[in-house]
Amino acid sequence: MTAPPITCTRETSLGVAASRMAESNAGILPVVNEKGTLAGIITDRDICLAVSRTNRNAISISVREVMTRKVLSVHAGDDVRRVLALMRTARVRRVPILDDAGHVTGLLSIDDVVVLGVPHGDIAAREIVDTLHDMYAPRPRAA
After folding, report:
1. pTM across the whole model
2. CATH of segment(s) 8-136
3. Exposed site from 9, 45, 47, 95, fewest CB < 10 Å?
């Protein structure tokens, strides 16, 4: 887990959010509300796509305009295998870790599981491969 996470608010500009990502070598920022609880998430991809679709400068676009509001999150005590199963089902590589009050205490990425879980014997390499396969395998389109 990466803790403490760098966050932003809904009012943060995409330019500032991108700078925070660059400074912290992250591709994702949890978005928090005025109470400090999770309000959404924004990724480097969200920023690139938003800027490419408009003539507006990244400084003039707020995170609120492009963030994902429905966010998969987990709690610090959750079992890592359960988290992997959630990542697999939702097809996400990173999830915010919340405390009981809904405050973001960290981020867990599939990279963290690879780096920390496999070498310590907590997670088998096969579990990681299966999770990644399910995340990226094409799904049939609905008719």
Report:
1. 0.85
2. 3.10.580.10
3. 45
